[in-house]
Amino acid sequence: MKEYLALFRVRFITSLQYRAAALAGIATQFAWGFMELLAFSAFYKVNPGAFPMEFRQVVTYIWIQQAFLAMFMVWFYENEIFAAIQSGAIAYELVRPVDLYNRWFSSSVANRLAKAVLRSMPILIVAFLVPPPLRMSLPPSGGQFALFFLSTFLALGVVVSFNMLVYISTFYTLSPVGARIIAAMLADFLAGSIIPLPFFPAGFRYVAELLPFAAMQNMPLRIYSGHISGTAALYGIGFQIVWLITLVGLGKFLMKHALRRVVVQGG
Q: What percent of the chain has pLDDT over 90?
C-alpha cells in the first residue's frame, strides 16, 4: 500500500504544476456552465412546473458539475497509458515490483484530484456570488453534505475503474481511438453530463439508472442539490459501491488475462 500512496503523492504534486492548463479549463467551464444555465432558464420560464427538478436544484447541479469536472468526466484520459501500451514502453511497467492495475488506478485518481483542486475553488466562489436565480445553493443539511462527500469519491472510483477498462481494451486493438470515443460519448449522455437523468423519459431513465454510468456524477450531484435524500441517497451510495467493486474486479480479471497474452516488439 505504501508504494501506491507514494505514487499517488508524486502524481498529485506533479499535476498541480499545470496551472496554465487549469486557467484555460476554468474559462471553458465558466462558458459552458453559463450556457447550460441560460438554456435551462429559458425552458423553466416557459413552464416552471413541467420539470422533474426545481430550477435551483438544476442550477446547483450544473455548478457542482463544472467545479468538479475533472473528477466526473470519463474523457479525462491518461494519454501516457495509451502511449505506453502502443509504443511497447509497457515493458518497463511490467518489470516494476508493483501491480500494474493498482499503479494506473492510483495515478489516475491523483491526476483527477489535482485538476479538481486547481479548478474547483474559483468556480465555486463565482457560483456563490452570482445573483439569483443563477446562484448556487448549499445542501439542505450537514448530513446531506456528508453523503455528497462520500458519493463524490465513490463516483471518482467508478469513473477511474471504467476508464481502466478502456485502457485495457487497447491491449486487444490497434488503436484506442474508437474505444475511448465510444466510452466518452456513452458516459457523457448516460451519466447525466448533458441532461440530468430525471429529465429522461421514464422507461429509458429506468434502464439508465441501472447502468454503471448512473453511479458516476449523477449520484453526487443529485444528492448535493437535494433531489435525492434520505433512504434514496443511501440506496444510491450502495449502488455506487456495488458498481465500483464490479468494475474493479472485472478490470483486474481482464488485466491479468491481457498481460498473459501481451507481446512487446522492438529492441
A: 72
